[in-house]
Amino acid sequence: FKNLKKNPDPLVERVSVYGNASLAMPAFAYTFCTALSVSVLKVLHPVRPQQPVVFFSPTYLRALDRFWKRRGLKEVRLSSGFILISTALELCESVHVYGFWPFGTDLQDNPVPYHYYDQLSPHRYMHAMPEEFVRLLQLHSKGALTLHLQPCSSDNL
């Protein structure tokens, strides 16, 4: 979101579709995230005070990183999606994961974007998306979460 302070409308519009759900920001994950996360909080709070903006604790993020590294995940940094899934596993009784697919095409050979909002590819030296996906498959096979790989239909909603 360019010019967030001058034009908060695109951000406000984007997050308002989620109602009063918390917006988790990686403010203390990396130094480049702090200023942007604080800006989001400053812009959103006056306009949508009912929508909490929460920051992950740096202690929690380090512990989560160590947890997965001890279990063989070899990557410089966990993806934001994997961090959120890990957090959901701690907080929720039932976790369903949609849209976490580390490959360039889906099972029907259609192109799959890395982010839903841009055309960027994952940084191959930062994230090990296929490795994260293997961990999710393992968690799925153990019943810890449900990984949905097929396209959603109205029957699934």
Automatic annotation (TrEMBL):
Keywords: Glycoprotein, Glycosyltransferase, Golgi apparatus, Membrane, Signal-anchor, Transferase, Transmembrane, Transmembrane helix. GO terms for cellular component: Golgi membrane. It is found in: Golgi apparatus membrane. One of its GO terms (molecular function) is glycosyltransferase activity. The keyword Phosphoprotein does not apply. The keyword Glycoprotein applies. It is a single-pass type II membrane protein. Its main location: Golgi. PANTHER family: ALPHA-2,8-SIALYLTRANSFERASE, ALPHA-2,8-SIALYLTRANSFERASE 8F. Belongs to the glycosyltransferase 29 family. This is ST8 alpha-N-acetyl-neuraminide alpha-2,8-sialyltransferase 7.1. It comes from Cirrhinus mrigala (Mrigala).
